[in-house]
Amino acid sequence: MTITLLERLGGRSTIARGVEAVFRRLSRHPHPSHREEATREDYIAFLREELGAEPRTDQAGNLLCRLNATPGREGRPRLILQGHMDMVCASAGGFRPEQDAVTILNQDGFLRSDGRSSLGADNGLGNAAVLWLLSTGQVAHGPLSLLFTTAEEVGLAGAREVDTSWLSDGNCLLNTDGFHLGRAIVGSAGGRRETWTRPLETQAAPQLPAWRLTLTGGLGGHSGDDIHRGRANTIKLLTNYLAGLPGARLAALSGGMAHNAIPAQAQAVVFAPAQPDLTLLREALEPYGETDPGLTAECVRTEAPPQVWTPALQAHTLAFLSGLYHGVYAMDAAFPGTVGASANLGRVWTEENTLRISTFLRAARQQEEKELADRHEALARAHGFTGTVVSYPGWPGDRNNSLAASLDKVWRTQTGCGLDISAVHVGLEPSIFQAKVPGMVMASTGPDILDAHSVDERAPVDSLPDYVLLLAGLLEAI
Length: 478
Ligand SMILES: [Zn+2]
Prior knowledge:
The chain is α+β, with helices and mostly antiparallel strands. Strand 4 (105-107) and strand 5 (110-112) form a beta hairpin. The chain has helices spanning 5-8, 12-25, 37-51, 121-135, 157-161, 164-167, 234-243, 279-285, 311-323, 366-383, 402-415, 430-436, 463-477, and strands at residues 56-57, 63-67, 79-84, 105-107, 110-112, 144-149, 172-175, 183-188, 190-199, 202-204, 210-216, 249-255, 266-271, 296-302, 307-309, 327-331, 339-351, 354-363, 386-392, 420-424, 441-444, 458-460. The radius of gyration is 25 Å and the shape is elongated. The model has no long low-confidence stretch (mean pLDDT 95). Zinc ion (ZN) binds at residues 84, 122-123, 152, 177.
């Protein structure tokens, strides 16, 4: 009689309880990005006590642990299992993410927080699944490297610092930050954060009444996940309106929150002989009735500021903003339904007498990013803006990725269904690793996680055994 993998691991409820216990152990301390020290000590203690292994760390706080193969599997390819240790700390009700640990509840079939913070299942739960599985000693595997990174949530910062030697002895890498059980991601978008500046040139204000124009109530959203939903860009809408407003002199303009969020509000102060007529702006909002039902334009008289923008600054800024690309630029031909390249005009603000504009490009393929970047740079030159750029590369997807094929085979055997092999229009750490070790075969998978980065973040307990079985099946198949 053969004992199944599920039986060896003790059955579904043992697996779910085991993963939950490890996840709790790794969640005892706050671990926002760049503040992972205490939690890293918990990872190190687990690796020493439960796996008898000796991990090492680097300057960025990343953690590497090499494990020997189980007997008879020494010659197998080395698999790197990788996840990030930090979490996005959404908070409510007085929760202090730097000091307070997350309270984890197991309620109605979900692991969730007490509603005051995000859960940190992204990516702590994937890491816990790997660690619990290996701690059972019940799974055969080849040589393994466990890599846990820091500061993923702030521009993949830890992954950037990983030394190539930590990766180069690996044959393939499985990232556990995939969010959807039953899916293997084999490609992700690169990101290019552009900040454009121009000195704020002003002159004495004209003898005209001043008006405050506001456009609020947009839905906004994530510049990768939501860019294809056609939501309003309030900065674009307001500046297009201002460009067509006869005789108006701009004294202030701002909008949006971040380079990687679709702007949900924008405002301006203008001098104009009469109260600006908002008819044209309201007409421009009409197409967004479905996507952004809360959009509201208003204009009120306001106290006159002493200075206005020079006519040149006003004309160049409005033309620059109108020319910057926003929205889906190209779909990914290899992955129907997935955005291939996009741009987000995310924020306009003034700081230290400098006008600042931030945009964010995402593209799986370098050529499309370059087209958008060239366009923005040409516009900036024409309109007197200077740009600074921070970027990370794309991870172009390969459907015939051998690691995804192995995962798919295991999943078919275990569930009777194929894995969804897809690409995503957001940044993932494998894009950094691919640039360090070109040709490394990689995929990203994970247990189900819902509403990550919010206080409603939760993970169905039921998906944990399936995810652990997928990992275990893969380890034995390689
Ligand atoms: Zn994550």
